[in-house]
Amino acid sequence: MNSHRSQKLAFFCLLLATLLVVIPVGMVVVIIVQKGLPGISWEFLTDVPRKGMRAGGIYPAIIGTLYLVTGAIVFALPIGLLAAIYLSEYSRDNFLTRVIRLAIVNLSGVPSVVYGLFGLALFVVFFNFGASILAGSLTLGIMILPIVITTSREALESVPEAFREVSLSLGASKWQTIRHVVLPNAIPGILTGTILGLGRAAGETAPILFTVAAFYLPQLPSSIFDQAMALPYHLYVISTQVPNVDEKIRYGTAFVLLAMVLFMNLLATIIRSRLRKNKRW
């Protein structure tokens, strides 16, 4: 009887903890959707800011965000995947590799403002890229690199060892086994981690504040060495630096940014579920 009561109490505590997490997040989403949806229109999504960003749209900020996210993943995915392959398939389990893995995990928790200062010192000043899409993309790429490495390594290590043994026993080399057996079966986890990293990159303000973001730039960038507007920084600007901005514009911008991040997370979930259905193990 006591164990039955303890089990009920434990379930209640778990339910309460879940509600304490879900309810505030749900309230934030509901408020943003409720106040931001009336401000969404075709003009708002395709026009440039006007009248000191008190009117017009957010088209340059949307395009700038897409440029930055694309640049970040072009940089982070190849390096992160190769690093994950080495740590999972080639490196020995010794003190050095354990330290490297611990450092990668710890880098995932570094505040984004630290990455912004690092990008400012390295890419903007040292390499003399200036405040540009290139500097911002590289900074965001470094920021999401630990996520890509960690998720890719876990996906590779989740592939059964028997798959590798069968492939090697048939005469395939180590790299052929990784390329034709391990990687295809690890793709769901790799894609999921990559898209989640993209979601984080799209919503960060501090890294782009130091490396790429422009206060007001109505025209689209013409090269990777140009500055660009971005949704997170644009939202910060119209919420704190520009007076008398219509509430619909602020919440509409927040709604677009939230929709972009949620779409990436939903896409990751759909891809993962579909690819997992094709697994044979």
Question: Which descriptors apply to this entry?
Answer:
two-stranded antiparallel sheet; single chain; 75% helix; MetI-like fold; mainly alpha
Textual characterization of the structure:
With 281 residues, this protein is mainly α. It contains 11 helices and 2 strands. The protein is globular. A two-stranded antiparallel ribbon has the order 1-2. The chain has a single domain (60-277), classed as MetI-like fold (Orthogonal Bundle). The two termini are 40 Å apart. Helices cover 75% and strands 1% of the residues.
Overall pLDDT confidence: 87
Distance between the termini: 40 Å
Number of domains: 1
Per DSSP, the total helix count is 11
In CATH, the topology is named: MetI-like fold
Class inferred from helices and paired strands: mainly alpha
Largest beta sheet, briefly? 2 strands, antiparallel
CATH class: Mainly Alpha
Computed over alpha carbons, the radius of gyration is 22 Å
CATH-assigned homologous superfamily: MetI-like
Strand content: under 5%
Order of strands, main sheet, comes to: 1-2
- Please bin the fraction of helical residues: over 70%
Are there runs of 5+ residues with pLDDT below 50, and where? Answer: none
